[in-house]
Amino acid sequence: MKKIYLWAFSSAFALNACAQQQQNPTIVKYAKLITAEDARKHLSIIASDAFEGRETGKPGAEKAANYIAAEFKRLGLQAPVNGSYFLDVPLTENALKVTDFTVNGKAFTYTKDFYLTGTYPDNNLTANTVVFVGYGTDSEIGSTDLTGKILLWVNEDKPEAGSTPNTSYRMTAARNKIIKNLQSKKPLAILAANPGIAAALSRFGSSIASARLTIKKDDAPSSNTNAPVVNVTTELANELVKASGKTYDQLKTASAEAATPALSVKTDVVLNYHTEKKDVKAVDVLGYMPGTDLKDEVLVFSAHYDHIGLNRDPNAKDKVNNGADDDGSGTTGILEIARAFSQAKKDGHGPRRSILFLGNVGEEKGLLGSEYYSEHPVFPLANTITDLNIDMIGRVGEEYIGKPDSANYVYAIGSAMLSSQLHEIGENANNTYTKLHLDYKYDDPKDPNRFYYRSDHYNFAKHGVPIIFYFNGVHADYHQPGDEVSKINFPLLAKRAQLVFYTGWDLANRDKRPVVDGKISEETR
């Protein structure tokens, strides 16, 4: 949040003026083409059972891609990939098979007690010692030789006086640095313990166990030669340090209070795994509208059309994770915005800048489609002025349930990270037209939820392209079969999409592109 207010004083007058601007009836006319009724029509198809949860590499995702491309064609958008609406995203499916994980002869279960992601050489690891390295700081490691050892590491930010540590199991920039430092010591494996792992596995275990997709790179090594990072529950961690006479929490507390030296514990560990690979077909879907006098500059509207596919629970009554909100709602929003711009162009009000409508694949697999586009852009990123990314705009998030403005808000993330001017443009559009409550709670790179890093805009931001990420927040049906069309608030979806349209209209037609005056954070490089 601090970044927002660094320039707030200098822009206060401008923002006040924005709130008083008169609405442009031409823009309002086309924004009204974004309707709840039309959104329902699209989403009822995209998030239907027939699309089988739109998992990347599966038939349902291909059906969704074909539907989006057909809509782009119907609207008169150009096919910019050598005459095609599809940008091939070459992926490899890596199915990690963990055959054994035992501690002192006690067997632990993949996706119940631990999980391992990534691509590694086939390996059979055995050890009779575990080294507890606390939070992994240099003072804790000291001169301890970690070569060929199995490490137990506290996957949390170390407490510091005057600040609240991030205790989420999701990696932070600081913890990624620690991991790289630990891997440089050439251990056999790093076991990352966190109290949130058990709940995460209970809720998302089936998807965690699914094969991982990666972008196929001909010049890349076939697998990661670094020590694997295995996420483990605290129950498993307790077994690993049992012979020390102390619990994992006791050791963690001691490490938090002082620079406790690394502790070697006599523990027998066996970890065996291998990876099975195959190529996977996937596409981003691109629709292009050329501009007029500023056509060499490009504005991007993005949303991911993929979801997590079929429910792998054999006892489940509902077999399809429909993903109506995540991100059928964003995909629908893009189609509605494209419809409004297309009609405007037909009526002689086409945009000055070119517009790319980008349906990304593989977001749920690690932002893969947007990563591939950012590394193989159809239009140069240097000429890309902004990415307006929509990911979940059809529901009321858990923090707004029961609040007076529950049907009139949206989280806006990242607008001031790289461009203070882009933030003003977003505020201006909202103050003049939609008057939603713009919530900036998550507009912080240090947000424990890490939303700034968790959707497709991130792959533009890390290349210095300003972004705004529109998001309604998580809810009880997030990544669950209950994310159904019947639970979508279509008037709210349409209003949020209208805000993105108004913001995009300004960006596409203003004289100057938004100035980039923010600093790319170290994590986005």
Brief account:
The protein is α/β, with parallel strands linked by helices and 525 residues long. The chain is 31% helix and 22% strand.
Detailed description of the structure:
With 525 residues, the chain is of the alpha/beta class. It has 2 domains: 2-89 and 282-524, Aminopeptidase, CATH 3.40.630.10; 94-278, 3-Layer(bba) Sandwich (Glucose Oxidase, domain 1), CATH 3.50.30. The protein has 15 helices and 17 strands. Strands 2, 3, 4, 5, 6, 7, 8, 9 and 10 form a 9-stranded mixed beta sheet that branches. An 8-stranded mixed beta sheet has the order 1-11-13-12-14-17-15-16, sandwiched between helices. Helix 7 links the parallel strand 6 (150-154) and strand 7 (189-193). Helix 4 (36-46) crosses helix 11, helix 4 (36-46) crosses helix 15 and helix 13 (420-434) crosses helix 15 (490-509). It is elongated. The two termini are 21 Å apart.
Shape: elongated
Beta strands, count: 17
Q: Average pLDDT, to the nearest integer?
A: 92
Structural class, by secondary structure, is alpha/beta
Question: How many structural domains?
Answer: 2
CATH class assignment of the largest domain:
Alpha Beta
Helix count, DSSP H or I runs of 4 or more residues: 15
How much of the sequence lies in strands comes to 15-25%
- CA radius of gyration is 24 Å
The CATH superfamily name of the largest domain is Zn peptidases
